[in-house]
Every structure is written in C-alpha cells, then in structure tokens.
Amino acid sequence: MRHCLVRFLLLLVLPLLLLAQTETERNTTLLGITVSGNTTTDENLIRINSGLRTGQPVSGEDVQHAIRQLWDLGRFSSVEVLLTRELPDGIYMEILVEELPRISAVEIQGNDKLRTSRIREIVDEHITLEQPATGLDLYKIKQELLQAYAKESYRMAQVDVDVVDVADGRGTLLVNVDEGRRVRIDEVIVEGNVVFRDSKLIHRMKKTRPRRIFRSGKFDADAYEEDKDRIVEFLRNEGYRDARITADSVYVDDVSGNLKVFLRVYEGNQYYFGAITWKGNTVFASDFLTSQLLFREGDVYSLKKFERSMQEGLHDLYYNRGYIQARIEPVEVPRGDSVIDLEFQITEGNIFSVHRVDFVGNDKTKDKVLRREMSLHPGDTFDVARLRRSLRDITILNYFDQPMPQVDIAGEDEVDLTIEVREKNTDQINMSAGYSEQDGLVGSLGFTLNNLMGNGQKLIFDWQFAEDYRSLSLEFQEPFLMDRPILAGFKIFDIQRTRSYSWDFDQRLRGGSVTLGRRLNWPDNYFRVSSTYRLEESLYTNFDEDARDDLERRGIIEDEPQIASTLAIALTRDSRDHAEFPQNGSTLRLQSEFGGGLLQGDQDFHKYTIEARSYSTFLSKLITYTVMEAGVVDALHEGGSVPWIKRFFMGGSGMSLGTALRGYSDRSVGTGEDGGRVMTKLGTEVRLQLLPNPTIYGLCFYEAGNVWKNLHSASLNDLYHSAGLGMRLYMPMIGLIGLDYAYGFDRIDSATGLRKGDWQFHFQFGREF
C-alpha cells in the first residue's frame, strides 16, 4: 500500500517538477526507459504506444500523453510513468502497468426468464474472448441487461458482472442474475383532468394499461412515451389546444410491489375555429381554398383536422398544379379565451414541369417497362397525384420492392424525377397442391416467368394432376404489343380425366385460345377490356354402365368428339395497392362467354359471370377482404341443354373444377356433380399481416354460396355457410402456401340426407380460394 502511495505521489509531482523547470530544463533528454508489470502484453507495444523515445526531449505534457495513449489501449487497470533516476545529462523513466485479465470464458448464472443466448448476445457486443474487458465494458453489459429485464417487466432484477478466477492473466466473466419477480402495471393514476374522466384518457393509451384478464400490464418505456402523446393528441383534437402532460412518473408501489403510472394532465380551455382568411393566393380563389378544409368556422378546434387540411387539402392542391415550392404558413390568432382565427399566408412560387425521368436499380427490367407505367413524362406539369399513381402502377407489376421517388430541382421551373427500384425474384416454380375427398391429391407443377427477359412478358407452363386427372398447358402474354397498351397472348392445353369413383367416364379435352386486350381511360384508367377466342375438342369414353343414363341426362355422350368454339369478352378493373398483400383498393371482373351459333361448334350456350373483390384497412393493422361472385349460364335456344363442362360447380378448393367454398368437399354444394345454371358466392375475411417479407398473414373468414339448377330455383335464403381460420405464406420461387380449417355449417349427412355441420382442412399451394 505504501509503495502504491509513493508511486501515486511521484505521478503527481513529476509533471509539476517538469513544468517548473526553465525552458532548457523542459527539454530534458530521456536517457532510458524501462517497462514493468506486463506479462502478456509485448514490451515493444507499450513503448511504441507511449510515444516516449530514448534520446528525445521529454516534458510533463509528453508524460500525460503517454499515460492517455496506454490507457486507451484498454489492456490495463493501472498505468504509471515514474522518474527513476535523474542525471545532469537527462533522466531515466519507468512505465509501470497493471494488466487487465483476458476473458477466457463466460459463465451466466441465475437467469430463467431471459434466455442464456440473449444474455450472451449482449455480452458479445462488448467483449471478445482472449481479450481484456475494461470496467466500462462491464458497466455497459450490466446496464443493457437491466434494460432487457425491465422490458420483460422484471424491473427489480439485480445483475452483477465481474471477472473471477483470475490466474496467469486470464479470468472468467461471471454474469450473476437475481431476476426477482415480474412487476406489472396495476394502476394508472391521472390527476388534473376536469372535463374528461380518468378512464376516458387511460383508454387512449394502447399499451400502458393496468393488468387485466386479456392485458399483460407489461411496461414498455418506448410505448409509454407514445401513449402520453396519444393522450395529448386526443385532447387537442377535442378542442383543448393547450393540453399537455405537466408531470409523470413510474414507480414501484411499496405495498403491492407492482408498478404505478402517474400522470398530471393540463386540459386548458376548449377552443373553436374562428374566422378564416387568405393572403397571397392567386391560383385558387379564397372560397375554393376554404372549401378544401376539413373544418368550418365555429367547429371545435381539432389538431388532426387542421394538419390533414394543410397536407391533403392545401399542399397537395398546389403540388398537383406544379407549384412544388409553394409555402402555406398558417397564423393562429387567439380571440378571447376560446376562439382561434386563422390567416393562411401563401407564397405560390413558379409552376414546375418535369425535365427528366430516370430509373435506378432495374438491373433486369428494361426502362421501357417502367416508363410505360408512368403517368408523368418529361414536359408534363409536375403532379404529386400522378406521381403516386405511377408508383402504384409500378408496385402492382410485382417486379420490385416498394419504389422510392426522388425529386431534384433542375432549374428555375423544372425538376428531375428519379425512381429508385429494387428488383425481386419474379419467377416462380408453381407447386400447387391440395387434397379432395373425391379427387384425392390434387395440385400442379410448373413454372411462371413473370418478367421474361426483362420485357414484362409472361410465360407459363402448368402441369395439373390428381389421382385420376392430368392437365398440361403452355401460355404466353405480351402486355404491350408493339409498345402500345395492347394485351396479346395465346394458350394451348391438353386435359385428361380417367374413370374413378367420382368420375364415371374418361375425358380428353385439348385445344387452344388467343387473347387480345387493351387498357382503357374510361370510366377511369384502372379499366381493361379483353376478348378471348377458344377452340377445343372434348371426347368422353369408357362409360360406367351403371351411370350411363345419368351421364347422357347431363348431355355427356360416349365416343362422340365435340368441338367447342367460344368467345369470351371481359371487362376488368384493378385498383389494388399491392399484388401480394393488398391493403386498399378493389378488383372487378365482368365476363360474357358465348359458344355455338355464328361461332359454329357443337356447344351452344351463353354464360355471364361477375367477380368483385375489395380491400380496406381498419384499426390500423387489420385488413378487411370481401368477395362476391355470381354467374348464370343457359342454352342459346329455348329448351336446349347447357354443356356439362360449362355449368357451375362449387365446394372445396375448386382446383380441379368449379368455385371454391371452404368447409365442403369439391363439387358437393348445391346441384353437386350435375352442375347448375346459376351460382352465387359471398365471403369476407379479416387479415392480419405477421411478416412483410416474406409475406405471412393470418385470417379468419366467413363465406356462403350455392349452385342452383336454374334461375327460378335460386334464392339467397338458400345458401351453404362456412367459417374458419387460415394462414398464408408467399414464398419466392413458390408463390402462395395456405392452410385453412373450415367449419361447413350445412354439410349433408350421407346417412340421413340432413344438413349437419362438420370441420374440414384445406391445404394448398399457388392460388387463393
């Protein structure tokens, strides 16, 4: 101890002695330097990092610098520079160090609620094995562990971090934890509020809530700050413009041992919007600008309405006319104790046009594929609404992750627009699979090239199969024929079904189709129209003799090839915001299909279908998806027969034939295997995205539908209902993977013929129900 004190005094005195010397003496020469105390650190490393050189002048500042340099190495618990000998020609010095032990192992004790791997992650952020750990490193580890435990509601946890079992310069880092018990929020105390009840304000907090049956009462510091902002936001949207939280605290109650959250709220006076005036506007009339606001004179003051009016009503209004440098500065002028007059001071600036449109990141996709989706082109007036639409159209291609725009001023009244994209894998190996009680294993295998050679073209090969079913098809689509918004494509196919307990015949169906379509600008530019001509030959053979009469009644004739010549015209609209997980928007498809008549062929019919799907967001994260499908088919001539293959079927996955209805077997709903001339299906889902990439979401659903023999027997009071839960996963190169567990309320009991509810699994790849 005495030796340490002497060295400490020398360390203090040496710089003072050196500083007190004359100018000549301050340049005292260092005649020699020794290093001691080191066992694992190389002596030369210490000499070099000290900066002290034999034969060079040395000053008190040099000594202090040497100590700092060696300390910063993080290898020593003590560093001293001692004056050991003084001669007329110079001095001799000694660098005395005490090394920190190197960490040879990590031992963790006492943890249960926090995984060992998680604790080890925190430790590894600050230390490296076979390297020393400083006191600061140990302190940081301890603090981060305490924060991690506090996040899991173990706010009383105690953590000790130390180096033990030191021998030969090495030791073990011991993390010793006493977790204590979990501390929950059992009360939120609100004071100072006069107008609103405590419960009203506490309800505005999403996560900082007392523990109840369906609430954990867990305290999260970040969420707490957000919840305080929500209370203030609520009050200001109710007219209490000056509302704020004047004091708050979170503490452990001595009696209950749980957390209490205390908030002191200042509500202030309730304000109303007063007179609204405009200054500096020349592009839009004052009355028109006032009409774009979400509030009127005399309305209760609302911060939310005020901010939305500024952004969506005013800024966008000017931006959409090209005034991208327009400044709108609202001036709030209090009048009395409860009225806020507003004067909007506007500086409009110049109209900006688009100078250049460039694309970055499209390594595979050609510029023209992106450019043809743009609503903004060089020379156009810059319009934010058209830019948003362009980004949506690029997104819906599903070739890229979310595109990011960058707008740069290119001159006095021009901007350069750069769209940054990141390519994603658009090609898929299609593996569709499911199970049907009637068809056994059903599915498909093939590939889809959605962006062939970066031209936006699509090439699809599909092999569908079941125990007694096989289908081959090849399809090609060109969305912009000759760089014009014209869709062109073709498809060839060959389908075979063999006789089984669910099929009383063999079937061979082969043929092809060609399609032409075009984008429309009316009723709006989300619409497309297309027409498809299809020519196919069907042949039914190998009838089951016991079923021959039923098959002939359905219009299925043995060993007589039938030629179907059909034309389908479809009008579609797609305003979804995303291809894989839409959150807003809708799709609509109206189709008319005709066979026979002027088209010749052996199948005479006319068929009309409608399919509408919509997507909307509620409660910030939940997505509502609704679907409606309906169709009717009839013979061209009164009293004629509708071809069996053109009738409606419903139930199950709908993969081999018909419309899906979960909770039921394939083709078991309504008219069953006979098929019907009228079909309706209604459904709704509530979806919650669990992961954005890859897209994973859970859902619950309810749907109902039926197939009727004819229009006269159809009734919306006669529907088959089902409900259930499901999960979806979109995988690159594979597509959609889905699982549903559905309860069919109106399944038919084969023994009694009565309706009886039952559960059924539906497993699928590659398509939506």
* Main beta-sheet annotation: 16 strands, antiparallel
* Uncertain regions spanning at least 5 consecutive residues: 1-26
Q: Which term fits the overall shape?
A: extended
In terms of structural class, how would the helical and strand content be classed? alpha+beta
- What proportion strand? 35-45%
The count of DSSP E runs of length 2 or more, i.e. the number of strands, is 31
Sequence of strands across the biggest β-sheet: 16-17-18-19-20-21-22-23-24-25-26-27-28-29-30-31
How many helical elements?
A: 13
Distance between the termini: 82 Å
Kindly report the average pLDDT value. Answer: 87
Which percent bin holds the helix content? 10-25%
Rg over alpha carbons: 39 Å
